[in-house]
Amino acid sequence: MLLVLAFCAAAAFVPSAHAAPSSVAPGSVVVIPVAGAISPATADFIVRGLARAADDHAQLAVLQLDTPGGLDTSMRQIIKAILASPIPVATYIAPGGARAASAGTYITYASHIAAMAPGTNLGAASPVQLGIGGQDAPKPGQPPALPGATPASGPAQKDNAASGALPLDSQSTELRKQLQDAQAYIRGLAQLRGRNVDWAERAVREAVSLSARDALEQKVVDLIARDIPDLLRQLDGRTYDTAAGAKHLTTAHAPVVTLEADWRSRFLAVITDPNVALILLMIGMYGLFFEFANPGFVLPGVAGAISLLLGLFALQLLPVNYVGLGLIFLGLAFLIAEAFLPTFGTLGFGGIVAFAIGALMLIDTDVPGYGVPLPMIAAVIVFSVLFIFGVSGMVLRSRRRPVVTGAEAMIGSMGVVLDDGLVSDTAQARADGSRDSPQDSLLHGEPDRVGWARVHGERWRVRSTSPLAAGHAVRVTGRRGLMLTVVPASNPSQEGEHT
């Protein structure tokens, strides 16, 4: 999995074959293509594209837009850049079949010029409810439904239906605040650009949409153009007010430069995918776990720290539910603890449950293109379980292996007596390194016999309570300093008497 992420990161850093030239000629038209959900990466690309167009003294920036919507924070970041732009910004909903739904409608209203290609549509700008499960999409002409709402009846129902307002007895305070804020926001943009205010409010309140022809007739957009050249011909000679004053356009024969996403935008797009962010968190936690369990291995710690920081960076750009994030970390901690504590699966099961619930709660929005799908959560859980129990199995197997280094490795080793010098002399045993006192000999029942034996190919001083002749096989039962305690190998019942 690390190799997959490394490949994605490397691909993000490779320059695009269609990258824009290093500079834009003054008086050019800069086209910024935007397709897909409005995300932090999209906002970064558009903001930097508009700044570049202004710095290079382009006369017009065109956002070629095709989006189902996106994150509110990213949308507002883009709109701020448009309103502060010193050059006119045209939002062109294209090609045919494209749409500017939800966040795309706000961006269109904020632009100095709003244009659509034939066969496109915009609208459905109701704010999406935050939380798990979301809500059903409202039907055209109906206000968004609220969780737990009870439909009004009688005259009140008719009044609400006529006004498009939400039923007062069932409104959620949080959703009502979001709806009012969204209506005021798009109303202000419509008034700023002189576009249809009433329809803008209906797009938020009732989630209505318009085709290109209807949008032109209702003064929601300024013009319909077949393509970019047709758009530039229609804009030629017009003047627009910008943050830097009035700008006159001469775009009929202006050179067109199309910007493409650079490595930064592609990298942000990769790591801000909720699935990738979740995987980065998991790799980060397991990498640090490996490093702490095996200090000095280095690679797991380096990969884990980098992955964890990238995952946290991605999450701070996304609408994250921090309770879900906490449950994910708690679940991973439980799974790791299961490898070391004798809980008989209790912590492991709790970790799986906590991780699954946290992953479902992690992304706090129902915006299209966001959220962690159930198959992804299941795959991560299965991988985590296999990983943890695999590590647990390796730990248990390693604990059952005999010790191969240190003083403990001598216990149980076989050796051969080298001489007949084992004598009944406790004082000599103490002089040769034994720490036993006379009381030890009394406890043993008979004096120690001291001699030499070969153990592990080495010559060792040994002692035994049994008489041993040269060539007799012995088994080591203890070690004190440079003296080994042995018993005859043919009498295993005495093993452990002198440990």
Automatic annotation (TrEMBL):
Residue span(s) of domain NfeD integral membrane: 275-389
Main location: membrane
One Pfam family, short name: NfeD_membrane
Keywords: Membrane, Signal, Transmembrane, Transmembrane helix
Entry protein name: Serine protease
Recorded topology in the membrane: Multi-pass membrane protein
Residue span(s) of domain NfeD-like C-terminal: 448-488
Compositionally biased intervals (Basic and acidic residues): 432-448
Transmembrane spans: 267-289, 320-337, 344-363, 375-396
NfeD1b N-terminal domain ranges (all copies): 29-130
Signal sequence region: 1-19
Presence of the UniProt keyword Iron in the record: no
Keyword Transmembrane: yes
Region ranges (Disordered): 128-165, 428-448
Subcellular location: Membrane
Top-level taxon of origin: Bacteria
InterPro entries in alphabetical order: ClpP/crotonase-like_dom_sf, Membrane_assoc_protease, NA-bd_OB-fold, NfeD-like_C, NfeD1b_N, NfeD_membrane
